Amino acid sequence: GPKSLSWVDSGLFSSLCTCVVAANFACMLLAPQHRELKLLFACLDQAFLVWYSAELGMKFAYHRAHLFKGSIGVVWWNWLDFGIVVCGIVDQWLVPLLAGGGQFSLPVSASALRALRLLRLFRVLRALKLLRGLLGGDLSWTMSPWFEVLMSVVIALNTVVMAMELDVEWSGWVWVEFVFLTVYVAELVVRMKRSGCHYFMDLDHLFWNYLDFIIVSAGVLDMCLVPLFRLLQTQVWGDEEEDSREPDPDNSGSSLGSLLRMLRIVRILRLVRLVKSVKPLFLLLSCIVESLRAMQWVLVLTLIVLYGFAICWTSLVGKGLIYPNQDVPDDVEAAFGEVFTSLFSLFRLMNGDTSIVDLVCTTVIGRLLVVAFVVLANWAILAILTSVVSDNMIASSRELEMEDTRKEKQIVYERCVTRLRDLFESIDADHSGTVSYQEWEALLDNPVMLSELADATNLSRADLEEFFSCLSVDPSTCAAHGPVEPTNSGAGSRSTNVEDRVMQYDLFMHHLRDEMETADRRSLLMLMSKIAAIERRVAARLDAT
Fold it and tell me: 322 with 366: CB under 8 angstroms?
């Protein structure tokens, strides 16, 4: 086709088409709920159909027959577009023209008209065009820092809107919430597309991935279930019959409506996602979660102490043993007359509600009981709880910091390996996976390459020359045995002349990673054993001569 239409395959035009489809789908869901805007939605529907027709026409003019011929995985989207446009033209233009009572109208029975209305169901397939727009491009941008910042800003704005929805009456909140939901659904889809099935099996992000999925699913059910039900009913039965056939699933007395209103509470969990995006808050939240696991035995101890005191207080206070003539006040009997009511009353006392024991403190024994309980349950148990939580938060914080440091080192190492591999492959003329002494010296004599190598490894020229001297091996040894560690005998034996040796750059990068680590006891023992072996070989050769 004409090169002037090549822009129909550009990313900008594809993004524009995706936005149009998203707006069309939003209008389709919201139209049944806003009957007063029926004329506006009808005009928008006609405009969307004109856009789809023009889009398909321009793509056909550019691709010609190749638009519908080729790999099934590619052209079926084009056939879907063609089917949607044809059904839209029949439903929105031909049917009103033939059955509208004008000069071109034809006698059409009610059953035939209803059958033609089934073509409206193809409008729902426009959602697949939105899915195509989200999945058809490069999704690497979802891993970029700016995307995380953008989603954090969106979540923060959404939390503000959630509060304003409860305090400010406005019919347009549903549109605002639909925009936020569209962003969340798009984010979830592209992340699932990028990760595949691993999205639900990634142990490092398992909790957050399932949390995102639950939040978005609840939002879709809340925002789209009832509108989609009304949309399908409208497309099948038509606007004129909808009022007589449609139940109100969002009625306050409806169980479905109650369920949907309960699903809206799940939106509060978006605050957790906001906490995740702020690293200090996420670190604090992770430490708290880890501390809750350590609290379980403290809670068990607290329950045992409360249960023991509940039995004691029920026997002494609830049964009136601390009162003269066992005359128990009604309020005291209501609070401590049974074990389980005593348990709850003591829990209130443990948390500072002293009004529950005002009548108990009228006797000396009652005061002693209150003092004993406050010292053991309030002072001791809470002090133990605070200590356990604090210790575990400190330990968890250290572990998380170490894990973050390890991940950062891994990222730095992977970047370093990528840069070094590109550099080594550029000087490895025979693609042998090794660098000769001459190639190595040429690399070090090149100021640009030396700067790149030094920047990637954080090593000076002297250190790099020492690395080559330590890691280089005989070329024949490398060819016969593949990747080998340099040793003083056997497969990795070295040539006497360093200029005849070669260095495997995969081994260089491997040792570069080890160079970043702190030597442990095992490494020192291995070094000592190698030194002892060298001493024995040297002594044996001296004795032989």
Answer: yes
